[in-house]
Amino acid sequence: MAEAGRSQANPPKKSAMTPKAIIHQKFGDKASYTVEEVQAPIENGCPGLAIPQKAPPCLYRCTLQLPETTVISDTFKKKKDAEQSAAEKAIEQLGIRQTEYNPTVHEAWDDLARRVSYLFANELLSSTHPIRGHFRAAWIREGHFNGCVPVSVIAVFDPKICNICKYIYPAAEANILLVMSLVLKAASTLTDLVVISDEQLSIQRRNPYPSEIISPINHGSSLPESIPIDVVHIPVSRDKAVESLTLNISATGYYLDIIAHALGLMEASDVQISRTIGKASSEMRIYSSAPKKHIFDNLSEPQVNQASHFEGSKNIRASYLAGQEIYGDAIMASVGYTWRSSEFFHEAVSLCLYYRLLVNKIPSGAYQISRNAILAAKLPSTYTTKSNWRGSIPRDILCTICRSHHLSEPVFSTQSISLDSSLDLPGSRKKLKATQLGEEEKSKAAVGPFSCAVKIYSKNQDLILQCSPQESHRKQTDAVQSIALKVLSWLDIYFKKPDISLEKLNLLAGKHGFHFTPNFVKEFALCHSVHSFSSIGTADEGEPSFIDIGGQNSEGTPSNGSLASISYTVSLFKEGDCFKENLESCEEFEFEMGNEAVWPHLEAAVAQMAVGQSAYFTVQLPLSDLTLAAVAGNSAATQSLSSSRSCKLEYCVTLLQVTEPMEERMEQAQFSPPLSKQRVEFAVQRIKESSAASLVDFGCGSGSLLDSLLSYPTSLEKIVGVDISQRALAKAAKSLHSKLNRLSNDPSSKIKSAVLYDGSITNFNSRLRDFDIATCLEVIEHMEEEDACLFGDVVLSSFTPKILVVSTPNYEYNVILQGCTLPDDPDERYQGQTCKFRNHDHKFEWTRSQFEHWASELATRHDYSVEFSGVGGAADVEPGFASQIAIFRRGKDGNLTNMELVDSQYTLIWEWSKENVLHKE
After folding, report:
1. Of 123, 146, 286, 512, whose CB is crowded by the most CB atoms within 10 A?
2. 498 versus 710: which is more confidently predicted?
C-alpha cells in the first residue's frame, strides 16, 4: 500500500482528548460524576464599604467516583467545567499518562485498518455508537444488498475514521471523497473479514454475525410500520424551485434506500452524505448522488485529493448549504441514529427551515433570525450601547456567519490606548497613540479607551480577511462589538452586490480599514449564485403605498436614539381578492430609532406616530430569500400567491412605548470632548484657581466626577461624595478605592482622605459644612423644581461652601441635540417648541433666563455672588451653552441668612485614608 506524504503547509490538527474522555476511555461506565451547587462567599473587593454586597452567582462543584478513588473538583460557574476539573484531578492523582495521538503515515494506515476491522466486529452491534444503527439496518436489507454498508456511512458517521485519515492526507479533514477512498483501500487489506462490492460503494462482512447478535435485530423496532417524514428537495437546475417532499420510511427497511429511490438512484451506497448543517447537535444533512465505484478504482490518491470526480452538474444551492461539492439533485433531511437513543431519529424539515438556513448565512439574515422578525428587523448600522441593542450581539453573529461558511472562529485582539496629556478623549480629531500592554499591566490598567482588530481565517488557517480600524472606544466590549458589526456590514454589502467589481471591492475595503486576500473570493464564491436580494422601502417598488395613522396624538413621537416599542402584524394579501394570511407578528418588539434597525418603511411609519397610535400601510412583496423564509412557513396557497406581482404585504403597527435616548450618548454625538469631560475640566479649573483643599460633590452618583478628578494634579486633600442611591455609592466606592490605592505612593497626588455618605442633599449635615468647593453637576434636573430650590437654600445657608458650582442642561439647546430647526426670527425661537427633555428621568429643564433667575435670587438671599458660564457651545452664539453653569462665591462677611435646620443623619458608606494604606504597606 502506497504511503502518502503529509502536507507541510497545512499539517493536521492534533486532537487532544479532554480529561473526561480520558477517564471514560479507562473506566467507562464505572466513572460516576455528581455535580452540586455551591454558594460562593461574598467577596468585598472594597474594604470599609458598609453596604452588603450582591450575592454572587451560583457555582458548581463536581465529585467524581472511580473504582480506585474519589476526587472533588474546584468550584466553577459552569457544570461542565467542574466535571472536567474533577476528571483532570483524577488523571493527576492516578498518574494516568495522556498519550497524544500523532501517528506517522504508516501508523495511521495501520490504525485505519484496525478501525475498519472494529466496525465489522461483533462488538459494534452491542455498543452505543450511532453508526451501529446503520450496521443493524444493513442486515435487514433484502437480496444481495443484505449486510452491505455504504462506504459514505463509514466515512461520515465515524469521527475516528476521519481523524485517522487526516494523518494520511491532511486534506481528508474537509474532503469526504478522500476519506471514502482511504476507507476502501484499508478495507482491501482485510480480505478475511470483509468483502468490497465490485459495483457499489459498499463493504460487506464476509461471514454472518452469530445468531445471538442477529436475533434482536430481526425482532424489529418499536416504531410504526411506516413513518412519513417531511424533507426538502433541491433540484440541480436553478430554474426549478426547491420544494417540500414527504418520504415514507419503513421500520423494516433502511432509510438510505428510501432516500436513494427519491433521488432516482438504485440503493443506499449510491447516496453521498454531507456533514451536518445548522447546529452541531443537528442530524440535518444533504443527501445526493455519490460518484460511481469505478472512479475510485481508476484514480490515484493524489487525484482524489485534488479534485471531485462526479458525473453530472454541480448543485449550487445544495453545495452552498453543505459547504462541500454536491452533484445532481439533492434532499435535505433530518434523519438517522444518535447517541441519545438506539431508535431511528427523524425530524420534519420544511421549506421555511431551508430558507432560514439560507438567510442565516448572510449577516443581516442571521440578525433577523435571532430576532425572529424577518419582515421587520434589519441589521443596525451602529453599535451604540449594550442597553439599546436587541437580538444577538455582533460578535456572536460574526461567529455564526463564520461557522455557517465553515471558516475558523474570528480572532479579536484588543489593546488599551494611552493618552498623552496633549491628546483628547475618543471623539476628538486628534490621533490616539496605541501601546501594547504586557499581561501584568493589562491586569492593572483595565482602562480605556480601547481599539480592536479582527482576523478571519479559513479552516486551513489561511487568512481571508482582516480589519484594523483606527477607531477607539471607552469600553473594551464596545470596541469588540463595533468592529464585529463593521465586518458584518461590509460582508452584507458584498453579499448583496453580486455585480461589484474587484476594483470597487478593494476601494470599499480600504475605505473601511479592511484587507482581504484572494482566498476571500474563493471562500464566498457560491454566495452570489444562490442568494436573491431585493430591498423593501426603496423608491422603485418597496415604498409604502399609503400610511394611515389613527388614534389620539399624545405627543410621544419617538426621536433618533430613542427606543421604540411596537406591536405589529404583517399579512399577505392580493388586491381585489378576499384572501389574506398572517405571516409574522409580535406583541412587543423594541428597536432603536435612527439606527436602521428595522425595514425603512416601518421606521418611517413609526417616526410619524405617537404613543398609543396605530398605523396601516402596504408595500409590494419583493421576491427575496428573506420574504420566502417568512412565506414558506405557511400554506401552499400562500406560497403560490407570493409569486404574484399583485401580491402585497400589509403592516399593522401600534406604538406602545418610547424610551428617550440616554443623555450622555446624545451629547457624545455632538461634542468632542463629550460634555461630561468638559464639565470635569471646568471643575478642575475652578479648583486650581481657588487652591481648594476640600471638595464635596452633591449627588455624586457612581462617582464619575470624583473618579475623574483623580486623573488631574490638583490641590485637593479631601474629597467627599453624597447620594441617595446605595447601589451607585457602592460602585463609586469600588472605583475610588482601586484608584486611590494606586495613587497612594504617587507624590503628585495630595489626596489624604475620601468619604462617601448616603443622604439627601436637601438635608443639612454638619460634617459637610464650610468646604472649599462644592459641586452639583447635572443633578438638580432629576429633582422636582421645589426640591431644587430647597437644595439651593440649604447649601448656601447651611453647608456654606466657599465656592459652589452648579450645572444643568440648557433646554434651549435641545433643538440642536434632537435635530430640530430654529426659526429665523429670534422672537419666534422656542415659542411653541415641543422639544423633549434629554433624559426620561428629568423632572424639568430650564432655559437660560429661568436658570439665571433662580441662581441670581438664590445668591442675593444668601450673600453670595454668582457668575454664569457653560460648556458645549458658546455664550454669544445661539442657543448658548449646552450645559449651563452657575459659579457661586461666598461673600467676605460669610453667610448672613443662616436658616435653622436640624442636623439630619447621613450614613457613612465608605471611608479611605492614605495614612492607613501606607501604614499597612
Report:
1. 286
2. 710
Q: Enumerate the β-bridge partners of residue 590.
A: 565
Amino acid in the structure at residue 282: S
Q: Give me the phi and psi of 26, to 5 degrees please.
A: -90, -35
Q: To 5 degrees, how large is the angle CA 724–CA 730–CA 734?
A: 145
Question: How far is residue 494's CA from residue 363's CA, in Å, rounded to a whole number?
Answer: 11
The helix (run of H) or strand (run of E) holding residue 203 is strand 202-205
Neighbours of 423 (CB within 10 A): 13
C-alpha cell at 371: 430576532
**Residue type at 289 in one-letter notation:** S
Supply the pLDDT for residue 664: 63
Q: pLDDT higher for 309 or 885?
A: 885
The pair phi, psi for residue 770, each rounded to 5°, is 65, 40
Query: Per the structure block, which three cell numbers stand in for 543?
Result: 415604498
325-335 pLDDT, tens digit per residue, is 899 999 999 99
> ∠ CA(187), CA(192), CA(194), 5° rounding?
45
- Helices 79-94 + 19-27 axis angle, to 10: 60
> How many other CB atoms sit within 10 Å of the CB of residue 533?
18
Query: What SS3 state is found at 417?
Result: strand
Average pLDDT rounded to a whole number, residues 427-451: 43
Instruction: Centre a 10 Å sphere on the Cβ of residue 763 and count the other Cβ atoms it contains.
Output: 18
**Sheet containing strand 580-592, strands side by side:** 547-550, 614-620, 647-659, 563-574, 580-592
Dist CA 875 CA 865 (whole Å)? 19
| Complete DSSP assignment for 471-525 | --BSSHHHHHHHHHHHHHHHHHHHHH-TT--HHHHHHHHHHTTEEE-HHHHHHTT
158 pLDDT exceeds 80?
yes
Contacts of 311 (CB under 8 A, 6+ apart): 289, 291, 292, 327
How many CB atoms are located within 10 Å of the residue 295 CB?
Answer: 18
Q: What's the angle, vertex CA 241, arms to CA 236 and CA 245, rounded to 5?
A: 90
Q: What is the pTM of this model?
A: 0.68
Block residue for cell numbers 461520515: 156
